[in-house]
Amino acid sequence: MSQAAEQKLELINSLRHAHSLKQFTLAYQSIVDLQTNQTIAAEALLRWQKSPTEYYEAANFIALLEETGLIVNIGQWVIEQACLQAALWRQHHQPTFRVSVNVSPLQLEHLDFVEQVINALNTANLPAEALILEITESALLRQPEQARTTLTRLKALGVSIAIDDFGTGLSSLSRLGTLPIDSVKIDTEFALHLNEASGQKLYNAIVQLVQALEINFIAEGIETQQQKDIMTRMGPGFGQGYLFSYPSSVEYFTQAFLTQKCLA
Ligand code: C2E
Ligand code: MG
Ligand code: MG
Ligand code: MG
User: Fold this and answer.
1) Which of 23, 50, 124, 216 could form a disulfide with 54 if both were Cys (CB 3.0 to 4.6 A apart)?
2) Can you tell me which atom of ligand 1 is nearest the CA of 27?
3) Is the separation of the CB atoms in 133 and 116 below 8 Å?
4) Which residue has the least CA distance to atom 20 on ligand 1?
5) Is the distance from the beta carbon of residue 99 to the nearest atom of ligand 1 less than 6 Å?
6) What is the Å distance from ligand 1's center to 45 Cα?
7) Distance, CA 43 to ligand 2 centroid (Å)?
8) Is residue 234 in contact with ligand 1, taking CB distance under 6 Å?
9) What sequence ranges are listed for the domain EAL (predicted)?
């Protein structure tokens, strides 16, 4: 076996035990109303503390969780945790605060998925309006009719649906208008070209398309004030990125975005 294959097997083996060893945590990143600069929601992002010195962001291991199917159970834990946290934030800090959770295609295909979401909401005593589920374009394409049924049921409950990494996949635009979608998250890729006229035109076209369908947009990957200014001029919308915050611990997030600053 090659060294790379051996390393991968070892990593998979560690991932299998990570959950029972309580090595997974969630980091939260703010989602900001571009017009008011208010943090209105947080995206939960999975993190793996493999050892005291080894901390991994989701990008480094999500593909392996998908490949092994481990994402189904871990993803359910993510929804439960995020719902409990959102309930605490709403109770103690901000009554309208919302949480946004990434859903893997494998979770979405699971026949019990809607029931699992309902259970997580009930256990946390969280209203469905407080939950946003992020689904990628590719997840919608795998089993389009089943996905549509699932999204329609979630929508009927009051859960919001966002299309993640919008513009990078193969989603058919004709379908976009017919699915119960509340927002699209325009992929980081598009923000990278905002300093070029052609990049701005493309961005603007996407925003207009989305708005014509009465869908909200969330601009991903906002890193500079210049990018933010350009997006803010495109109309009412939301943004996310390092300019506003890095993904951070519950403690830091609460302190930075949800604690009323004391007026001395
Ligand atoms: P995503 O949902 O598109 O999440 C955004 C990713 O971009 C995060 O990486 C975040 O740390 C990073 N990011 C945030 N702001 C900026 C910015 O201004 N510039 C740049 N360049 N990057 C930024 P992360 O946490 O490594 O997550 C990667 C992907 O893994 C996520 O992409 C999502 O698809 C997936 N993922 C994360 N957590 C979960 C989870 O709990 N369940 C599932 N199924 N997937 C997850
Ligand atoms: Mg996401
Ligand atoms: Mg995204
Ligand atoms: Mg992305």
Assistant:
1) 50
2) 25
3) no
4) 221
5) no
6) 6
7) 7
8) no
9) 8-261
How many Å apart are CA 78 and CA 72, to the nearest integer? 10
Write the pLDDT tens digit of every residue in 1-59.
Answer: 799 999 999 999 999 999 999 999 999 999 999 999 999 999 999 999 999 999 999 99
User: For the chain, give me the number of helices (H) and strands (E)?
Assistant: 12, 9
Dist CA 168 CA 188 (whole Å): 10
Tell me how many degrees the CA angle 188-192-194 measures, rounded to the nearest 5.
Answer: 115
- Residue 134 Cα: closest atom of ligand 1: 2
User: 3-state DSSP call for residue 106?
Assistant: helix
DSSP annotation of 262 reads: P
Q: Is 247 in the pocket of ligand 1 (CB under 6 A)?
A: yes
**ipTM for the predicted complex:** 0.98
- Residue 16, Cβ neighbours under 10 Å: how many? 11
Distance of CA 239 to the CA centre of its chain: 12
Q: What band does 262 get if pLDDT is binned at 50, 70 and 90?
A: very low
Task: Give this prediction's pTM.
Answer: 0.96
Distance 53 CA to ligand 4 centre (A): 26
d(CA 27, CA 45): 5
